Amino acid sequence: MGILNLFVKLLSSTSKSDPRQSRSSSFNASGGGRIDYNQLLKNAVAQLPPEAVTIPNIGVIEPICPYCHKALKKMPTRKTACEFCGNAIRVTKRPFDKKKALFTESQLSQVEELTALYEAIKKMPNNLRIFKRELNEYQDLGLTQWKFLGCHDERAAPIERELDGRVVEIGSEDEKRMLVYLVDPRYRFCTNAVIESRRK
Ligand SMILES: [Zn+2]
């Protein structure tokens, strides 16, 4: 993480070479009226599946075996075999509150991913504010399209490569579909880049 991996680039209709696309982009899908991005972003968030926006409650902070649930003599501070069932109890920080907690082996493999997802979910309200402001600015400027430029970093989600270069018509059904991707915390697109690309 930490690498800016998403760039939304503005395109004006005059930069388009295909006249058919220019013509089709000269009006928006809402019939030429102003697009309510606040509502469109709310709709996009409402379409996200629960696993995109909720963190499972894994990890126990009491001295209880996460396998057999029996009370341990003391809280383990590192990898320990349960005195009752013999399973390997793993110790690390919980994704959502960073408290030291006990995990099964299989839960441990999810902790890093869930911690990253948790951080992305926390950033979502701010990202939504940025999207709303940016998209409204595009609209105010009379632009008809924007372009998604994905990153080719090997850590980028496959969806980011897939969407790379996608030109989105403002006010189109395609834009609504794109917003669902952009607000999904699981992909961790970096919205800071939206602002950065405008400053360049
Ligand atoms: Zn046990």
Key structural traits:
200 residues; alpha+beta; three-stranded antiparallel sheet; elongated; binds zinc ion
Written account of the structure:
With 200 residues, the protein is an alpha+beta fold. The protein has a domain at 6-53 and 113-199. Helix content is 40%, strand content 14%. The chain is built from 7 helices and 6 strands. It has a 3-stranded antiparallel β-sheet with strand order 1-5-6. Strand 2 and strand 3 form a beta hairpin. The protein is elongated, with a radius of gyration of 22 Å. It starts with 5 loop residues before the first strand and ends with a helix. 20% of the residues are buried.
Biggest pleated-sheet summary: 3 strands, antiparallel
Q: Helical element count? A: 7
Decide which structural class fits the backbone: alpha+beta
- In percent, how much strand structure appears in the residues? 5-15%
| Unreliable stretches | 1-30, 192-200
Strand order of the largest sheet: 1-5-6
Estimated helix fraction: 40-55%
Ligand identities: zinc ion
Order of helices and strands: EHHHEEEHEHEHH
Radius of gyration: 22 Å
Q: Indicate the mean pLDDT.
A: 79
Summarize the structure.
By secondary structure, the chain is of the alpha+beta class. The protein has helices spanning 19-24, 37-46, 50-53, 105-140, 158-163, 173-182, 192-199; strands spanning 6-11, 80-81, 88-93, 100-103, 145-150, 167-169.
